[in-house]
Amino acid sequence: MARTHPLQSQAAERAENLPHDVRKALKIRERKEALARVEEQRDIKKAALAARGQLNVEKANQNLPAVPQTPDVVAPPVRPARIKPRHRFIFLSFVICVLGTNLIAAWYLWERAADRFVSVAGFSVRAEDSSSAIELLGGMAELPGSGSPDEDILYEFIQSQDLVRTVDNALDLRRLWSKADPDIDPVFSYHPPGSIEDLTDYWLRMVSVYNDSSTGLIELEVQAFTPQDAQDIARFIYDESSRMINRLSDIAREDATRLAREELETAVQRLKIARSDMTKFRNLHQVVTPESTLSIQTGLLSSLEMQLAETLISLDMLGQISSPKDPRVKQAIRRQGVIEQRLKQERAKLGIGSEDGSVDNPLVDLVGEFESLMVDREFAEQSYAAALIAYDVAVSESRRQSRYLAAHIQPTLAETSIYPDRLLTIALVALFSLLIWAIMVMVGYSLRDRR
Fold first, then answer.
1. Which of 26, 57, 125, 158 could tie 150 with a disulfide, CB 3.0–4.6 Å?
2. Would you kindly state where each structural domain of the chain is located, as residue ranges?
3. Beta-bridge mates of residue 127
C-alpha cells in the first residue's frame, strides 16, 4: 500500500476541520488549477506538433487526454469551423465528376445523339398435326422431331454471325447504320467499314430478341436511323427465319423419306428372294403345292388300307369254309401281299416306316420345306406392305409443309423515335456518377484516417 506524505495527511486533517462552504471552494479552485495545467500542456504539445508538421490540429486534439468535465467547471470556448483545402477539393471533385458528367451527357444526348426508330415483329413456330392420317395407315412412318425447341433455335439464329452476313449482303447494313455521321455521334452510330465481328457486335446492340419459352412466342425489336430501314431489316429477318425453319423441315422430311426408301428397298429384295426360292422348289420337285400331293397320297393310303381290310375279311371267311389249297384262298393271300407291298411303298413316299432311308426326299420333308418357304414369303410380303405404307406416308408428308413460321405481329413502321431515351439515360448517368464519386470520397477518407 502506498504511503501518505505527512504534509498531505496534515492538509487533509485541516481540510476536514474547515466548514463545508470553505471545503467546496477549495475543491473548485483545485479543479480550476488542474484544468489550467492541462490546457497549458495541450498548447505546448500542439505548438510542437504544428512546428514539426506531422499532425494537424484535429489529430492533436484526438491524441490528447480528455479533460474531466464537471458541472461546476466551464469548458473553454470552441473555435469556429473553417473551410479547409480538403473541403474545397471534395466540392471541386463533385462539380467535375457529378455535375460536369451530367452536363456533358445531357449536351451529347440532346445535341449530338441521333434519333433511332424501332420496328417490332412477333412470330412463333407452328406445326401441322398429321398424327390422324399416320394412325390410319398403321402408324409406320412418323417424322422425327427436332432435338431442341424451334424457338431456341430461332433465338440463336437471329443473333448469329451467319444471319448478319446474309442481311449485310442483301441490305448493306454498314450503309444503313452509318447514316448518323460517326463524327457527330460516335457513341451510337456505326463506324464503317469494320469487320464482320464489329458488325455482329453492333447488331447485338441494334437487334433485340425476346423468347417466351412458356408460350413459344418470339418478339423482335430492330433499331435503325430511319423508320423504313428498321422495317426492312425486321422483315428480312422474318423471311430468313421462315426459310431456316423450312430448311429444318426439309431436312427432317428428307431423312424420313430416305429411311423409308431404304426400308422399302430391303423389303423388296427380301420378297424377291422368297419368291425365287419358292420357284426353285417347285421346279426341283415338280410340284405346285405339296399339300395337294399329300392329300392325294393320304387318300391312296386310305383306299389301300380299306382294300387290305376287305381282303383279310374275305381270307378269314374262306378259311372257315375251305381248305388252304383252295384257289380262292391262294388268290386272297396273293392279293393281301400285293396290297401290303403297295402300302409299304406308299408309306415310304410319305416318310412313314422308312428307317433305312431308301426313299429320297419323302413327302413329309417336302411339305416341311414348303411350309418354311411359305412362312418366309408371307413375312416378306408383310414387310413389303408395311415398308410401302411407310414410304407412301413419308412421301405424302414431304409434299406439304409440316412446320412454318406464323407472324402475329407484322414488322411495324415507326412514326416517332424511341431511342435514345434521354431522360432515362441522364437519370442513370446521374445515379452512377454520384455513386462513383461517393465511393471515391469514402475511400479517400478511409486512407487519410489510416495514416
1. 125
2. 268-352+360-398
3. 403
